[in-house]
Amino acid sequence: MIVTTIDKLTKYSEIPYAQDIVDFLADFRKGEMAPGRYDIHGDDLFAAVSRYDTEPDGDRVFENHKKYIDLQIVLDGKEEIQWADTKTLTMVSEEFSKGGDIAFYKGDAMGYTLLGGEQCVILFEEDAHKPNVLHEKSENVLKVVFKIRCSE
């Protein structure tokens, strides 16, 4: 997991399409985009925009992905995102064997960060994450999750 700010994103050579992500966010901020999927490079890079209320920790579960790296940023409001190495958790269900790109886990967080403003988090296959968690109180957030296809 990498926690950084958008202005430093292009410094990470591990992140394909970093400049395209920065450019998308600049355009996004010029005019409110509706929630939904926005293709940037088809299935290789797309943005999922959502608006929702954060939830208590006990209502959320850990997840991870194998086909895509997640880059998550909260543009309005703030949320807690918890992290744990998948090796420390117990898998409760998965879609990998059915061609999907998600598995769910239970267990304890190894740490967390607050997302809001310019801060973003980059999550790789081994990074189980529990997003959308309230911090102190529930907030309505506007979030963009960039899905970056992993090289095979």
The number of domains: 1
CATH fold type: Jelly Rolls
Shape: globular
Question: Can you tell me the CATH superfamily?
Answer: YhcH/YjgK/YiaL
Major β-sheet annotation:
6 strands, antiparallel
What radius of gyration results from the CA coordinates? 15 Å
H-E order: EHEEEEEEEEEEE
Number of helices: 1
* CATH architecture term: Sandwich
Average pLDDT number = 94
Q: What is the subunit arrangement here?
A: single chain
Count of individual beta strands:
12
How does this model look, in words?
- The protein is mainly β and 152 residues long.
- It contains one helix and twelve strands, in the order βαβββββββββββ.
- Strand 2 and strand 3 form a beta hairpin.
- The two termini are 19 Å apart.
- 27% of the residues are buried.
Key phrases:
mainly beta, three-stranded antiparallel beta sheet, 152 residues, Jelly Rolls, single chain, globular, six-stranded antiparallel beta sheet
What topology emerges from the helices and strands here?
Elements: E1 2-5, H1 18-30, E2 36-39, E3 45-53, E4 62-64, E5 68-76, E6 79-85, E7 90-94, E8 103-106, E9 111-115, E10 119-123, E11 127-133, E12 140-149
Antiparallel strand pairs: 1-10, 2-3, 3-12, 4-8, 5-10, 5-12, 6-9, 6-11, 7-8
Provide a quick synopsis of the model.
The chain is mainly beta and 152 residues long. Helices cover 9% and strands 47% of the residues. The model has no long low-confidence stretch (mean pLDDT 94).
